[in-house]
Specification:
Elements: E1 2-4, H1 19-30, E2 36-40, E3 50-55, E4 58-63, E5 66-73, H2 86-92, E6 125-127, E7 130-138, E8 145-146, E9 149-153, H3 155-161, H4 164-167, E10 177-186, E11 196-206, E12 209-218, E13 223-233
Antiparallel strand pairs: 1-3, 2-5, 2-10, 3-4, 4-5, 6-7, 7-11, 8-9, 10-13, 11-12, 12-13
Helix pairs in contact: 1-3
Length: 240
């Protein structure tokens, strides 16, 4: 049995962990190479030790006996949206709806209330050629470096970069959502200080549930990581 802490820096809503970062931290405990599915059962609490244990082959993260997240290996890697060029992704940022109104401005990934070097400040806007695609550029800050490989970001940060871009490919500004499940595979970690492109795709909306996918690419279009997501609409007042 071990433990996991979601530091306050990595919050999504004001009172709980960012879904992508938390899922990536769990995935790193499951298998940092294979595709991993992480299901979030409740908002991840901040700055407290969470219990981690294996139960019937599933990595279970809990607090006082209540399950927070579950992670397991899966066979199939997610199918990402196609790569986009840096100029196309940069142009899309101008239409980022979060600049006008953001349900979770504290979000580590896409929050407009986070300073450079504190949050990722990934601001995805819609791509003019496809109404289901959002994209942004991202240059990882040195503070995101992995202690064991300083030229790269951590596994959890890589998953985080795959998170919100797909939510903004949907209508998260009009129907606020939080991440319920994320499946991802990391082929290679992004490099600190280099420009990358993140692309999100809306797939379907079924009642409160929205399905999306995302991809993280180098500037020359090489796929580094891919993800699929299940989102659920919420009242932001319950999370902020």
């Amino acid at each position: 049995m071990s433990s996991l802490v979601v530091p306050g820096r990595f919050r999504g809503p004001a009172q709980s962990g960012n879904g992508g970062w938390t899922s990536g931290a769990v995935a790193a405990l499951v298998d940092p190479v294979a595709p991993v599915e992480v299901t979030l059962r409740r908002p991840p609490p901040l700055d407290v030790p969470l219990t981690v244990e294996k139960v019937d082959g599933v990595t279970v993260v809990s607090q006082d006996g209540a399950t927070v997240a579950e992670g397991r290996r899966v066979d199939a890697a997610p199918e990402p949206p196609a790569a986009l060029s840096v100029p196309v992704a940069a142009a899309a940022e101008a239409s980022y709806a979060g600049l006008v109104g953001h349900p979770f401005p504290t979000c580590f990934v896409c929050g407009t209330g986070r300073a450079e070097g504190d949050g990722l400040r990934i601001f995805p806007g819609m791509v003019s050629s496809d109404p289901a695609i959002a994209a942004a550029t991202w240059t990882p800050h040195p503070s995101l470096a992995d202690d064991t490989s300083p030229e790269h970001t951590t596994h959890a940060v890589t998953w985080a970069a795959l998170d919100c871009v797909s939510g903004w490919a949907s209508d998260i500004d009009e129907r606020p959502m939080v991440l319920g499940r994320m499946t991802a595979v990391v082929h290679a970690p992004p490099r600190v200080g280099e420009t990358h492109v993140v692309v999100g795709r809306w797939l379907a909306t079924q009642g409160r549930k929205t399905l999306t996918s995302s991809g993280l690419y180098t500037a020359d279009g090489r796929l580094l990581a891919a993800a699929s997501h299940v989102w659920f609409t919420v009242d932001p007042a319950d999370f902020n």
